């Protein structure tokens, strides 16, 4: 959409456009501004794990507090995305973006100087609140800025590439910062990223909102939180404690409140989330493809990162660099799929891309027990090609399938699928791998009981415990742990391949049948 070049940015309601117009330079400049929070949030998802050892030494958190330092942010973020997306539709998506950026920056500074683990956990939860305002706003604003579908598809590809670039930069940025500064630096880096956003967004990014938002429904907001908080927390509990803990009751509670939320939306004249969206095959199918793709990606990174560091002996920075070619491939595939999507339907492009990703998991399954760094790197390249193509197409379909005035809520559903996919990737594939590792581990004779207990917990526990043993016995323990881990990887990789095949089948049966025409 061509935007006035006068200093005062006009307010633009998403439902006003009668014809799609191509965005000028100002629209692309707005995209650059919107990429700042995308990069920040994606870097933040990976950089904190590198700072956790220093945080543990400085603040002395308990094991439970260490988990909450990591989990508080994604738990709150995933639970609030739908609510914040709907509020953005009502009050203005740019306004929500600016409030989220301001709050995220302030709370990040508080986190950087937190004197206790409890205050750091509280700050991380606060970052989740404001982070939930950022992400749906960035994607939904693309819907109103780029009304021409070809341009919007390219903008979304760049948006998705920002997520991948942030994931690639996370380990590298974390390694550089922690080598020269204290752990608080991983939080302070948000300030120089968000300041340009606060200055430039009011100038370059037009406001957009639902012209007929209806009334605020506090009951729906409470029901959505009551549904998502238990479900997300249950997934994390499943990963840590298995099905024997509180995971199952939490799932039941979440599903019950979810049913009440859906029932209320169906009966409301102005629902917070229009459930009719899910009756559109392209919308619901794209959500499922998005979810399964992220599960496969995060699960792959879970065990490949451990193999590279604990078995291949790479440092965290070296392991991150080994994965960069795959992330570059993901970015390139997401951009190259844009011209292809003008000629071929989503039902062809997405399954074709995901077929390449299946090859990655098959390579891992075949080479389990002897996977070299080069083989793992090439496998991640193959995975990245398919996931990059699928994410670009699915996110564009999600936005295009929803009415422009509901872009915030649609974006929030997409983001929620992404966050749930991230935690499910760790919980399902990571939990399965941990169980298989324990089942396959055969400890050598002579290992003390306390070392045996630590070795049965995780591969990292076995590697760390082996240092306290006689060199020969320690080498035997490391070899046994590596064999057990890679044996588990072989089975888990086949499960991952199966998930991608399901995603490809969903895409082939639900997404658009023909290549979309440009909206000129």
Keywords:
disordered N terminus, mainly alpha, 520 residues
Can you walk me through this structure?
This protein has 520 residues and is mainly alpha-helical. Helices cover 79% and strands 0% of the residues. The chain contains 17 helices and no strands. The protein has helices spanning 25-59, 63-91, 93-112, 117-145, 149-180, 185-188, 190-204, 218-241, 247-267, 281-311, 316-343, 346-367, 373-401, 407-440, 449-457, 459-466, 471-510. Helix 2 (63-91) packs antiparallel against helix 8, helix 4 runs antiparallel to helix 5 and helix 10 packs parallel to helix 14. The longest helix has 40 residues, at 471-510. It is globular, with a radius of gyration of 23 Å.
Give a brief rundown of this model.
The chain is mainly α and 520 residues long.
Distance between the first and last residues' Cα: 10 Å
- Poorly predicted tracts of residues: 1-19
Percent helix, as a range, is over 70%
- Tell me which oligomeric state these chains represent: single chain
Tell me, rounded to a whole number, the average pLDDT.
81
| Strand/helix succession | HHHHHHHHHHHHHHHHH
Please provide the count of β strands. Answer: 0
The secondary structure category is mainly alpha
Tell me the β content: under 5%
Q: What's the Cα radius of gyration?
A: 23 Å
Shape: globular
- Largest sheet composition: none
Q: How many distinct helices?
A: 17
